[in-house]
## 1
Amino acid sequence: MTRRSLTGPLILILIGVAFLTRNMWQEVPLFQWIAQYWPFLLIGWGALRLVEVLIEMARSKPLPSGGLSGGEVALIILLCIVGSGMYAADRHGLHLPPFGNTSLEVFGEENDYRTSAQKSAPGKVHVVFENLRGNVRVNGSDEPVVKVDEHKMIRAFNKNDADQADRQSPLEIVTDGDRIVVRTNQDKVSHARRISCDLEVSVPRAAAIEGRGTSGDYDVTDVAGGIDITSGNSGVRLNNIGGSAKVDLQRSDIVRAVDVKGDVDIEGRGNDIELENIAGQVTVNGSYSGTLQFKNLAKPLHLESRNTDLKVEKVPGTITMDLGEFTGTNLVGPVRLITRSKDIHLEDFTQSLELETERGDIELKPGKMPVAKIDARSRSGNIDLELPESAKFELRATTNRGEVQNEYGSPLEAVTEGEGAKLKGKVGEGAVLTITTDRGSVTVKKS
Amino acid sequence: MMNGNELVRAVRGPIILITIGTLFALDHFTPWGFQQTWPVILIVIGLLTLVGRATRSGPTAGGVA
């Protein structure tokens, strides 16, 4: 009798579960899960084989040599290649079209329905939107009413089916405790039917807004309360908001907030982020593959992603960053930036700067007096430092493999040491500037 | 009759598999990239070979010819 491993059937079951998840719960970010967690499949597989070998041994049966068959090795290599590819694609924001997501209804015809509803809402109100699919545009107004214009799109093969779906999903504005809930009832329609609702909403200016959905953009303008948006695939644009804004998106093409009086808290994954004139604290936590732009932030900014950790006390100027580059101008320190691989340009920063990059060139121009304390380190990359003529500082620059260029002149002195070199010197009594690269050149000059 | 060498040979594949999986997991969830940690695989294979030789029965255990 030949021994059969459990891994074959188990892999089959796993693939089945994955496709079933995709088909039944389309909102589950399966691609991201697989891209991130596939290494555990290898670990589990190895552990399973190990247990099998131990069981064989306990039964005193002959042990397989090598432990893995040729077919398995081929499958493992394939898994590594596909998994790494998915991981890279996921990190860089490329997403394959979700398989199994295209229902037959794509071929049906689109039917439009328009309706509107309104409810009086005196005073401060909390408006909640429950709209699975579709865009929501909210404008604050002086009238004490919540007014909703709905444009519903239903895909169906015939008009009767569409009409039925329309009747099953009436637009509702209901009061629930101290909240007003705007509901499009898409979940009452059969899963297979494609339905989406675009809402044009006018709310009293004092309102707070809460949005829930799986796909569709949120656009909120002139609202004095807080904003809280949680969605699957969405873009969010906020303009002139009096309260704090919290945005949690599984995937976003853009999150833009302009003129926000409170804190801004962004979580999730996506492409671009644009924040401008924010009076409160800004926290960004997630992975973003596009361009991130911060302009005029009055309070601390904290950004944490897989590859970057950034803390800045205030941003009176701008910060622009994408996957390969970080540019910051006019920042109030302490500034702390730890990143994996980026070219970094920083100009006019105060207090202190702590900088670390694994791969990438660093260009620093501390234009403001007194010169900020600097501790910059690159594992591999050139570092350029441009100091104002009247600056007072103590420089300790080191390259472990590379050369130093002293374009500043005396009193800085260069010393060659083995494969590397050092540049040291003191001009008056000032901050200590420590600059280190493991591989690359260091250049210091006067601006 | 079971011997240690046979056992080492049998667990070699699974252990290498677990090592590779762990390194990729480290790559995804910690700052240790696969491009830095891959030599661990060579070390594990080397260790397994050494242990296999040490447990081999007979006087032929020894270095490379």
## 2
Amino acid sequence: MNELNQNSIIIDDTEYQTRLTKKFLSRKKYVPKSKSQIVAFIPGTIRAVTVKNGQRIKKGDSLLILEAMKMKNEIKAEFDATVKNVLVKENQLVAKNELLIELTL
Amino acid sequence: MSLKQRILEFFKLKSKVTEGGGQQAIQKQMAMGKMTARQRINELLDTGSFHEYDLFVEHKAEDFGMNKKFLAGDGVITGTGSILGFPVCIYAQDFTVAGGSLGIAHARKITKIMDHALRLGLPLIGINDSGGARIQEGVNSLAGYGEIFFRNTRASGVIPQISVILGPCAGGAVYSPALTDFVFVVDKISKMFITGPEVIKTVLGEEISMEDLGGAKVQAEISGNAHFYAESEKECFEQIKKLVTFIPWNNQKKADKFPPKSPRSNLLIDQIMPKDATQPYDIRDIIRALCDDSDFLEIQEHWAQNIVVGFVRMNGETVGVVGNQPLVLAGVLDVDSSDKAARFIRFCDAFNIPLLTLVDLPGYLPGVDQEHAGVIRHGAKILYAYSEASVLKITIILRKAYGGGYIAMCSRHLGADFVFAWPTAEIAVMGPEGAANIIFKNEIANAQNPDEVRKEKVQEYTQKFANPYRAAANGYIDAVINPEETRDYIIHSMYLSQNKVDELPKKKHGIPPF
């Protein structure tokens, strides 16, 4: 069932001949979180976008409404910034961790 | 009315109910490649052993036209019987009756047979094939689920509980199997999920088929929710029958003893083991070389394959085996393999099944994904399960036993009763390469020829530590043994331990790192 690929793995500087699992091979590379990228913390629907490209925003300003599991979540700015790029529209479905808005610090 | 007339009348009433949802619904069920609930019970139990209860139970729902609906047996068949002579309690949801939907009468039939199983100390088998809650019954349907979950939990560790998923088992319903000990799935028939493809599509806009979301393969291979995977219902029933022979009726008993058999002679340990310690081999070959008739019933064969768990017999007695699998991911411990082993260890401990641990691992799997997935708390489960287990614990160290992995794999320090090591065992904090690079870091870096010095130092470390004798000198292992003697040592240890007493401190219950 599992398609295992013949390969090897290095643990404590020793290379072991072994098979690697699909899960192991499809691990996502770690990317540090960027403060300037607003991503969806939960999958849902964008109900409103309250900022435009180029707009100056202050800490606590509303950026958008993300509705998920029958709850409307207001996403607010965590610091003063400029909106660089709004990537979503009203009524758009978004996946978890999807990039919604890019800010410039 | 004469007795004969009364009996004929009873037969008539009975045959009306035993027909379930009627011919049309039965045809539909068969067209899906599924047996009916009654066929399944007959196929699984010994011929003629099924005794049915609560055949004439009817629902009392009134709303949404339910008062006009007759639902045969309220969509579930319950009773008792035997499998290869082992007594069991059983229920099977009948998809031909209102889609096997669960109303309160349906649920109460199930809870009644569960209470029966618990009171009599008998294994419980539940065959799930249900569309879910009977919406017309509202909160009563939810009450029914809750009462089942409550009993699954209360019976956990007292009687073995087996769930067989032979159709949909979705939403809250799927928590009953999740609370039981063994979950059986069949390709293309089993469907398990909390939220189905429709909901996922509405909420997320993602399209996925039922099969890809929660089919048998997914549950057996990716999620680890299922323990046994079969291609057909018939094969599934054969797997259940085999499992039942390995486990006791309840936690007060030991599993039945069978006539002892020798391992098959074509499996020779020295031919299975590679010469180079970095080369893989299949730990299941070693297990088969050691156990009666080379017969190994593997559990969760397709998930977290870097650890192998399952049942064998040694001299006729059931033993639970846990072995690192060098063939897959070098046999490392990680999140999934720790979960898999810990759960199996706890089953064995609850049901008086001795544990045999075969050790050959380079340690824990390094990686950001592992750390972020909580390898600390998941890895801790294996330590907890072994330390808590009071059944006989025998550990054999075959090759590598490095670092935290050495401790975790039922070392002497976690209360192993017997620890034996092969001459090929390497019991150390880490492998020679890694150790030399740390201990002799400066000497290697400052050397004129670093590679040569590194080689020397690796050699030095290998001679000092990459063997079983340091651990033996400290009494951490009981004996270094010739691999050929392994079976003899295991059987002798079992013979010595029939009256083992190991009491845990008095407590309500421990708090395992769930």
